[in-house]
Amino acid sequence: MHLSRRSFLGAAAATVAGAATATASSWASAARAASAAGDVVGKISVGYQGWFACIGDGAPIDAWWHWSSNEGQPPSPSNNVIKAWPDMAEYAAGYQTAYSNLNGGGAATLFSSFDQQSVNTHFLWMQQNGCDTAALQRFDPNTSEGPTRDAMAARVNTAAQAYGRKFYIMYDATGWTNMATEMPADWTNKMSAYTSSSAYAHQNGKPVVWVLVVDHDGINFEGVIAKTFLLPGEDPNVVDICSKCTDDRKNAPVLGLPIIRDMKRTGMKYENGNILDPRDGHIYSAMMTLSPDGQTLTVRGYLGIALFGRDETWYRLPETAYKDLDPVIVARYLPGMTTASIKHKQNQNQNTAKSSTLAR
Fold first, then answer.
1. Considering the chain, what is the average pLDDT of its residues?
2. Pick from 83-97, 279-293, 337-351: least confident
3. Is the pTM of this model over 0.85?
4. Contact 11, 26 (CB under 8 A)
5. In the chain, fewer beta carbons within 10 Å around the N or the C end?
C-alpha cells in the first residue's frame, strides 16, 4: 500500500519536525498545546483514574468497581481489593459495605467516582493544595467499562472548570489488544472534543491542523495544511499567514500551506523530503514510514543526519473527515471529490458495513 491522493488526512498537532507526543487522528499527531505559559511543564500534575464505583450509584457498570474482588458483591474482609480506606468525611454520599462499623462507630462506607460531588471534592483538594493538572487515565473503553469511563471524562471536565484546574487525557494501553486502531479512533471520535474545554491542558500548542498528503505522480509527495482549529476567543475572520517563512511560502495563508515537500516513495518509506515548522519558519530534513496496515505514518524531522531527529506518529483519519475539509482545499487538491461525492462514498461505506454486519 502506498500513499495516494486520497490516502491521508492528517490531524497534526503542531505538525512540525520535532513536534509532540502522538495522539490520534487521520493523519493525527498529538497536540502540542496551547496556553502561552503552558499547563503541564513546570506545573504539579497528578494522575487521576476515576475508576471507583458502587452498586446503587447509577453508574452504567453497576458494580463495586475496584473496591471488591467479586464486584457484584459489596466489599468485605474476604472480598476486597482495598489498599487503604478513604477518609469519607468530605464526601456527600457514601455506599454501605459489608464491613462492620469503623472503630469510631461510623458506618463503613465508600465513595463512588461516578458521583459528581466526589470528583468535585478531589478537584477542590487539588485547588487547596496547589495541584495544577490532572492526567485522566483512560483505559480500553471498548469493554463494559466504556460507558462509565466516558461519563468520568465529562465529570472531570466539569470539576476542573469549577475549581480552576486543568486536565488532559492520558491513555493507558494495559491489556488493550487493538489499541493501534481503537485508540486513535477513540481520540478522534470522543476525547478530542474536550480540547475545546477551557479546562483542557495545553502545552506549546494544541491540535491545530489537519495535514493532507498529496500524491503528485506516484513518486513525489507533499503535505498541506487542510484544516485549522481556532483557539477559544480567536476571530474566525482573521486569516493566519506564515509570516516567518523565508521561501516562496512567505506570508502565504496557513490553510493550504505546503509543509511537507519533495518526499520520494520507496516501498513503505518516503525519503529525501523536508518539513516546515510554520511557527518559526524553520525547515528540517524529513522522512516518513508507513505502517504495514496503512494506518500510521511515522514522520521524522532532523538536522543533518536522521540519527539526530525526532519521530512523530500520525494516525489515519476516517473518510468521514473529508466532509470537514475547507472547500478551497477540496477544489485545489481533491478535484472531483465534491461534497456530494464525499457523502456518496460515506453512504457506500455505511451500507457496506451494515451488509457485513448482517452477513455475520
1. 79
2. 337-351
3. no
4. yes
5. C
